[in-house]
Amino acid sequence: MKTAGILTLKLIGLVIVYVCWRLAARHLFSFFWSVALVWGLVALVPLLAGVGRWLLDCRPTAERAALLTIPIHYLEMILLGCALIVAFNFTQAHPIAPVPFPQAISFPLLQLLGVLATLTVLNLAIRGLGLPFATVLSRKLATNWLYSRCRNPMVLSSLLFFIVGAVWLQSLHALLWTILWLSPAWILYVRLYEERELEIRFGESYLRYKAQTPFF
């Protein structure tokens, strides 16, 4: 596909993601639909990864992997983003119990993790010449700085950010959902789809990096 077509596809994807996130943030869902969205959308993430992996393996070429990753990543953004928005609204409206942890400690930690997540994006942009979620696919394999410590510092810092965010909101409901449901689904997505996509695009260099660097 020509560059103009790919750019158009990415812009359309970003608009759709924004609209979905905005609808999730502004709409007041019933108890039933909140539960269905919070648990159901996340449950679709491993299924999306499995379908994406199957499509990758049908014709494992770098060009096909790069093109397929655009819709797969945008669908992942919609599923996880909408689930997170609804989940944190829902868990505050229907708390199980408070988390007895001082907000004076959790808030600075939340800020620190936000900075760390931003640094992982900068790390990918500078060393990998790319940006998250297929907006700009990395043209080089980022293996330095934060990526020398683990293969997925962006995912790790994001998950920790949401976990600490649940602690800061003092919501046991949000904390349990993030640890027991969101985190496993997101990690499975990375293992099933993203790592395979990187193997196809970067070949032996990624396999060597994968063998030498821990997942987290």
How would you concisely characterize the structure shown here?
With 216 residues, the chain is mainly alpha-helical. It has helices spanning 3-26, 31-58, 62-93, 103-127, 153-168, 172-202, 204-212. Helix 2 packs parallel to helix 6 (172-202) and helix 5 packs antiparallel against helix 6 (172-202).
Supply database-style keywords.
mainly alpha, single chain, 76% helix, 216 residues, Four Helix Bundle (Hemerythrin (Met), subunit A)
Structure report:
The mean pLDDT is 94. The protein has seven helices and no strands. The longest helix is centred in the middle third of the chain and has 32 residues, at 62-93. Helix 3 (62-93) runs antiparallel to helix 6 (172-202) and helix 4 (103-127) runs antiparallel to helix 5. The protein has 216 residues and is mostly helical. The two termini are 35 Å apart. It has a single domain (3-212), classed as Four Helix Bundle (Hemerythrin (Met), subunit A), CATH 1.20.120.
With helices defined by DSSP (H or I, 4 residues minimum), what is the helix count? 7
The CA-CA distance between the termini, in Å, is: 35 Å
- The residue-averaged pLDDT reads 94
What ranges have pLDDT less than 50 throughout 5 or more consecutive residues? none
Q: Estimate nothing, just give the exact number of structural domains.
A: 1
**CATH topology, which one?**
Four Helix Bundle (Hemerythrin (Met), subunit A)
Shape: globular
